[in-house]
C-alpha cells in the first residue's frame, strides 16, 4: 500500500488546528510544517538535540495543562529516544499528542535506512511503533497509511483523552534537507515562551 | 549527607515546581520526600535516561515552570547533546543537582570521578561542590545567583564515605 505524502499529512493537521494547540516540530516534519505558515504557538525545534522533541513537548504540556501540545516527530528521532514513551505515560499528560511520521529513513542525511526499516531487517522481523507505544503504556494509539483515513479520523484522534500516539506512514521527501531555524533560536525561544505562557 | 526532607525544604524555598530526575543510590534516598512534595508545589518527573531530563526541563521552563534536573554524574555524561541544545542553542538557563559518584572516596578507581568536574567546565556550567553538610545553603545561594544572571548552573553533591 502506498504511503501518504508528508506535506499532505501535515495539511490535514493544519486544517483542524485550534487556538490552544501548541505544535512542536522537528526534522523533516518541521521543514514542511514551516511551509504551511507560522503561528505564535509553533515551536520549530531546529536546531535540535535529535530524539528530544517528545521530551521537550512533555515539559510544555506539564507546565501548561490548558494547552494541547502536539509534537511532530520523525521515526529516526523516535528510535533515538524510545524510553521517552515510558516517561510520557508515567507523567500521563492528557493534553499531549505525539505524531510519528514514519518514512523508514534518515531523510535529512540522504535517505539512509533506519534500523527499523523493513528492507534493512531480516525477513520476518519487523518493528511496530504502535505496539511499542501500547507496550509503553499508551492507551490511545492509531496508525494511518492512507490520507483519507487520517483526514477522516484526525478530529476524533485529537479529541480523545491523552496522551495519544499517532503513527503516519509517509513517503520520504526526495532531497529533503535539514530544517533551518527561521530566526535566531534564542530569540524564537523567548517569543514562543511568552506566547505559551499567555492565558 | 542530607535527608529528603532537608532537600525538599531547600527546593521549596527556591521556588522549584518540578524535579526532573533519574536517581542514583544517594539521590534515591530522597525519593519518598520528593514524591510527597506536592504540598510544597513540587512535582517529581521520572525519566528513563538523563538526556530526556534537560529537554523536559527546557519545555517546563518555556512554559513558565521552575524545573530542576536531578541526576548522577554518569547521567551528565549521557546528557551532552541535550544539555548543549537547551542551554546554548536556545539559551535556557537550566539548573541541576548532580550526584558526584565516589567524590568522597579518594581511593576509588572510578573514571566517573575523574571526568565529572572537567565535563562541567567544558560545558561552561558554573558549579559548586557540596561535600559537607554545612555547605547545603550553597544550593539555594548558587541557584539564586544563576537565576539572577540567567546562566546555567549546577551543584555537585559529593557521594561516598560520609
Features:
heterodimer; A: 199 residues; alpha/beta; two-stranded antiparallel ribbon; 8 helices; 8 strands; B: 162 residues; six-stranded parallel β-sheet; 6 strands; 43% helix; 19% strand; globular
Summary?
The complex is a heterodimer of chains A (199) and B (162). Chain A has 199 residues and is of the alpha/beta class. Helix content of chain A is 39%, strand content 19%.
Lateral strand order in the biggest sheet of chain A: 2-1-3-4-8-7
Mean pLDDT of chain B: 96
The percentage helix of chain A is 25-40%
Number of helices of chain B: 7
What report would you give on this structure?
- The complex is a heterodimer of chains A (199) and B (162).
- Chain A is an alpha/beta fold.
- Chain A has helices at 6-16, 27-34, 53-63, 75-80, 83-91, 129-135, 147-159, 185-197, and strands spanning 21-25, 42-44, 68-74, 96-102, 105-106, 112-113, 140-144, 164-169.
- In chain A, the strands form two sheets. In chain A, strands 2-1-3-4-8-7 form a six-stranded parallel β-sheet, sandwiched between helices. A two-stranded antiparallel sheet of chain A has the order 5-6.
- In chain A, strand 1, helix 2 (27-34) and strand 2 form a beta-alpha-beta unit.
- In chain A, helix 3 runs parallel beside helix 5 (83-91).
- The longest helix of chain A has 13 residues, at 147-159.
- At the A-B interface, helix 3, helix 5 and helix 8 of A face strand 2, helix 3 and helix 5 of B.
Topology:
The complex is a heterodimer of chains A (199) and B (162).
Chain A: H1 6-16, E1 21-25, H2 27-34, E2 42-44, H3 53-63, E3 68-74, H4 75-80, H5 83-91, E4 96-102, E5 105-106, E6 112-113, H6 129-135, E7 140-144, H7 147-159, E8 164-169, H8 185-197
Parallel strand pairs in A: 1-2, 1-3, 3-4, 4-8, 7-8
Antiparallel strand pairs in A: 5-6
Helix pairs in contact in A: 1-2, 1-7, 3-5
Chain B: H1 4-14, E1 18-21, H2 31-35, E2 43-46, H3 50-62, E3 67-72, H4 73-78, H5 80-89, E4 95-100, H6 111-122, E5 126-130, H7 137-149, E6 153-158
Amino acid at each position: 500500500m502506498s504511503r501518504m505524502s508528508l506535506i499532505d499529512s501535515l495539511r490535514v493537521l493544519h486544517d483542524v488546528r485550534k487556538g490552544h494547540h501548541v505544535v512542536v516540530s522537528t526534522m523533516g516534519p518541521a521543514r514542511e510544517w514551516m511551509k504551511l505558515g507560522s503561528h505564535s504557538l509553533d515551536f520549530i525545534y531546529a536546531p535540535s538535540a535529535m530524539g528530544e522533541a517528545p521530551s521537550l513537548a512533555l515539559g510544555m504540556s506539564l507546565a501548561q495543562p490548558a494547552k494541547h501540545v502536539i509534537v511532530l516527530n520523525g521515526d529516526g528521532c523516535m528510535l533515538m529516544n524510545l524510553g521517552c514513551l515510558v516517561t510520557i505515560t508515567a507523567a500521563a499528560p492528557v493534553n499531549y499528542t505525539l505524531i510519528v511520521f514514519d518514512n523508514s529513513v534518515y531523510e535529512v542525511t540522504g535517505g539512509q535506512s533506519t534500523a527499523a526499516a523493513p528492507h534493512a531487517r531480516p525477513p520476518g522481523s519487523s518493528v511496530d511503533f504502535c505496539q511499542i507505544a501500547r507496550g509503553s503504556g499508551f492507551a490511545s494509539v492509531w496508525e494511518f497509511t492512507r490520507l483519507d483515513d487520517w483526514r477522516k479520523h484526525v478530529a476524533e484522534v485529537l479529541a480523545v483523552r491523552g496522551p495519544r500516539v499517532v503513527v503516519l506512514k509517509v513517503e520520504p521527501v526526495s532531497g529533503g534537507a535539514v530544517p533551518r531555524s527561521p530566526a535566531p533560536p534564542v530569540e524564537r525561544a523567548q517569543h514562543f515562551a511568552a506566547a505559551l505562557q499567555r492565558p | 549527607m542530607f535527608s529528603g526532607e532537608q532537600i525538599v525544604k531547600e527546593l521549596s524555598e527556591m521556588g522549584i515546581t518540578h524535579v526532573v530526575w533519574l536517581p542514583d543510590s544517594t539521590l534515591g534516598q530522597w525519593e519518598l520526600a520528593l514524591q510527597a512534595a506536592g504540598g510544597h508545589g513540587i512535582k517529581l518527573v521520572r525519566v528513563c535516561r538523563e538526556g530526556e531530563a534537560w529537554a523536559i526541563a527546557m519545555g517546563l521552563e518555556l512554559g513558565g515552570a521552575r524545573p530542576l534536573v536531578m541526576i548522577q554524574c554518569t547521567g551528565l555524561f549521557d546528557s551532552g547533546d541535550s544539555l548543549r541544545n537547551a542551554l546554548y542553542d536556545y539559551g535556557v538557563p537550566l539548573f541541576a543537582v548532580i550526584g558526584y559518584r565516589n567524590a568522597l572516596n579518594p581511593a576509588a578507581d572510578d573514571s566517573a570521578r575523574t571526568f565529572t568536574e572537567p565535563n562541567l567546565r567544558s560545558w561552561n556550567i558554573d558549579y559548586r561542590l557540596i561535600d559537607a553538610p554545612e555547605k547545603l545553603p550553597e544550593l539555594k545561594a548558587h541557584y539564586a545567583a544563576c537565576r539572577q544572571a540567567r546562566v546555567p548552573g549546577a551543584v555537585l553533591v559529593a557521594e561516598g564515605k560520609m
